[in-house]
What does this fold into?
Amino acid sequence: MSILKDVPDLHAKPMREIIYDHLWKAIAYGELVADASFTDQEIADEFGVSRTPAREALQMLESNGYIERIPMKGNKVRSLSPLELAHTFVIRKALETLAVKYSALRITDAELSELGAVLDRLEAARDSLSGEKLLDELFPLIKRFNEIAFESCGSQRIIENIWRQRQILDRYRVMRLVLPNHVQKSIARRRRLFEAFRAHDPEAASAVWTEHLTESFAIWREQSGFADQLRDFMFF
It folds into this structure.
């Protein structure tokens, strides 16, 4: 029985890295859910490799906190604790505020034009829709806005790490929890971010996005049921 939907080509880079990347994405996107279990041999068989690269990939996943090794039984996907999720928000904030600073300096006229068009569609949806119809329209538009805003920074390393943190939060449906509670402010701040980009002002861009993420974290903390556990958490 197959564990994963797709297994990639194993010749592009070291097998342990390919296996790690694929398993990590399966965990981040919820294909491998919390408490799912499997053995080293099952993973080796899934990818058609020996146990050595499979074991190396699983050791990397364990060291990064995504799985735990169960003696004599195999491996189990970990569920992230509220504190670990809060720290994911902190990492996201650090990366994204850095990205928008660089984007403010480097964004091109073509990128500004597309960003403005997406923003216009966001505002039109906000003014004409409500409820689930509004959210269904907003999610892909916000995703596209964010892609342009972050990828304009010009650093592939920053971009990759941003999406990695966001994928972790997607696993826990964080955006679905946060967005309905600040639709107006979310779109208004994106308009302010756009204006900071047009002015090529990195400090203004960072300030807007810091404000946005700070409020997003506060909403998530309250709406997720973790308010008491994270009451004293410092969102730096």
The CA atoms of residues 44 and 51 lie 5 Å apart.
